[in-house]
Design brief:
This protein is α+β, with helices and mostly antiparallel strands. The chain contains 3 helices and 11 strands, in the order βββββββαβββααβ. The chain has a 5-stranded mixed sheet with strand order 7-4-9-8-11. It has a 3-stranded antiparallel sheet with strand order 1-2-3, with no helix packed on it. Strand 5 and strand 6 form a beta hairpin. The two termini are 18 Å apart.
């Protein structure tokens, strides 16, 4: 059997929306199961997001720390954001998030890894990009104003090998950060030669 996720859509015999928020909504689908049974499945509908593993010339990962209210934690993460501009290429969304959250831009972009954040309870998809050839955006060009959780958000450079250790030791929990760090470490063995282009299609 070929090990690859494939599209599949079972019959939905009823659907009910419970909540519509600014970003997400919560629905219950009644799904026809094997042997003609039906079962309710609750899930969060999400527009999707992107994240950026920015790696400098010294093999250091750019990480930010942000307050996440649902977990009641200050979490170390990669620059990331939701797909909130209709029709915008994902690499452009990622470049915008990198610039806004860290003040850096990158010359070279690749697709690092694609994730489904929690497929039992949300349809959210996350594309993590590898960004290299980094340079600081001059202050006069960077007019983005941080608000809410992003105010005072620190930026730290962490050696990739140290980031791997922190992920494996349970010191970093953000899922695209953990996946991106481990994927970058694995891809570095081949000099990143096996990575897909930044505009690779999503399955």
């Amino acid at each position: 059997m070929k090990i690859q996720d494939t599209p599949e859509a079972w019959d939905v015999v009823a659907s009910k929306e419970h909540f519509q928020g600014y970003v997400i909504k919560v629905v219950t689908d009644t799904v026809r199961m094997p042997q003609d049974e039906v079962a309710d499945r609750d899930y969060v509908v999400h527009p999707g997001s992107v994240a950026v593993l920015a790696l400098d010339d010294h093999d250091r990962v750019l990480m930010i720390r942000q307050y996440r209210h649902p977990t009641r934690q200050l979490m170390w993460e990669l620059p990331a954001g939701i797909r909130d501009v209709a029709g915008e290429p994902l690499a452009d969304t990622a470049a915008r998030e990198l610039a806004e959250e860290s003040g850096y831009r990158a010359d070279t972009w690749h697709t690092l890894v694609d994730l489904r954040s929690s497929p039992g309870m949300t349809d959210e998809r996350i594309r993590v990009f590898l960004a290299r050839g980094l340079s600081r955006i001059p202050d006069e060009e960077n007019t983005f104003v941080h608000r809410h959780e992003e105010i005072g958000m620190p930026v730290e450079w962490v050696p990739l090998s140290d980031a791997v250790e922190k992920a494996l030791m349970g010191m970093i929990h953000n899922s695209p950060a953990v996946a991106g760090i481990l994927a970058a470490y694995a891809a570095s063995v081949e000099g990143f030669a096996l990575l897909r282009p930044a505009d690779a299609p999503e399955a």
